[in-house]
Amino acid sequence: MNARKTLQVTLAFVGLLVGAGFATGQEVVQYFISFGTWGLAGAVVSGLLMIAAGAVIIQIGSYFMADEHRAVFRSVSHPVVSKFLDISVTLTLFAMGFVMLAGAGSTLEQQFGLPAWIGSAIMVVIVMLTGLLNVNKVTNIISAVTPLIFVAVIVVFVYTMMQLPVDFGSVSELAVQADSPVTPWWLSGINYTCMALMLGVSMSLVIGGNTTNPRVAGWGGVLGGVVYTILLLMNAVALLVNYESVEGSDIPMLQLFETIHPVAALCMVFVTFIMIYNTCISMFYALGRVSASITATVTSRCSWHLRGRLLHQPHRIRHAHELRVPRHWLRGHDHGDCHAGLVVPQPQEDRGRREPP
Q1: If you average pLDDT over residues 194-218, what whole number do you get?
Q2: Residue 297, CA distances (Å) to 19, 100, 268, 293 in order
Q3: Mind listing the pLDDT tens digit for each residue in 93-103?
Q4: For residue 335, what is the DSSP state?
Q5: How far apart are CA 276 and CA 15, in angstroms?
Q6: Where are the alpha helices (DSSP H) in the chain?
C-alpha cells in the first residue's frame, strides 16, 4: 500500500470535513455542546458514521475513476434518485459556497475592521486562481493546509486540560441553554454528519477518482474519518469546558484563543480564513467539474446532431463559409459539395450542370 498517497487522501478528506464551521466552533456548539455532556456522545456517533462514509465514498470514487459526482450517482442509483442527488448536492454547494465567501469577509471585518467586501474579494480571487489547477495540485493544496487546524485544535485542547478539574455539571447546565437546530443529541450528530457529507461528497469522489488504487483510497477514507473523529471530540471537549468564556460568541474558537493570548487569536484568524478557503475551493472546484462535464456533454450532442444532418442532407450546404466540419465526419462520402469532410465552393461553370444528389 502506498503510504504517501494514503496520507495525502487522509489529509484531503479531513480538510474537506473540518472546514470553516468546524474552525470557527459555531457548528460544534450548535450540534453538540448545546446538549451538554450528551453532546460528546453525539460527536462519537458523528465520527463513527464519518469513518464508514469516508471509506465508501472515496473508494467508490476511485473505482469509477470519477471526474465529478454525476456519473457516480448514475452508476450506483436509480435515475430518479440520481437526478435528485445531483440537484441537491449542486444547489447545496452553490448556496454554501457564497455563505463561505461572506464568512471570509466577516472574519477579516471582525478582527481588523476591514469592509466585508474586501475579505470576500480576496477569497474570490484566490479561489479563482486555484481553480485553474488540476485535481492533483488542488488535492495537494488541501492536504498541505489541513495540518493548521490540527495544530489549532491541539493547542486549545492542551490549554483546556490545564484548566481541569472543572464542574462538568454546572458547565453542562449552562451549555444546554444554547440553541440547537436538531434534537435529540443522537439525531443532531447524524444531521451534522449528513450536512458535512453533502458539502464534501462531490470533491471526495473527485479525490477518490484521482487515486488509481481503490484499496489506498478506502484506507485514506477510513483514516480520514478517524482523524476527523478525534479532532471533533477534542474540539467539543475544549468548547464545553470553556463554554462560560465563549457563550454568545459568533466565533467561539476565536474567542477561546483570545482568552489564551491576543497573538494566539491573531494566528487563529488566519487559520480560520485558510479553512474557509479550504471549504470554498472544495465546493467551487467540484461545481466547476460538474459544469465542465455538462458543457462537454451538450457540445458532443450538438456535434453528433450536426453530423447526422450533414450526412443525410449534404445538398443543403453550398458555400465554404456556411460551415466547416472535421474531416473524419464525411470521410468516404462524396455528397455533392462535400469534399473529404470539408465543405468547399464549386466552380461557377460546374454549378449549373451538377446533378442533384
Answers
A1: 85
A2: 32, 30, 44, 6
A3: 888 888 888 87
A4: B
A5: 10
A6: 3-17, 20-24, 26-31, 38-63, 69-76, 79-112, 116-130, 135-145, 147-161, 168-175, 185-209, 214-241, 243-246, 252-260, 262-312, 348-351
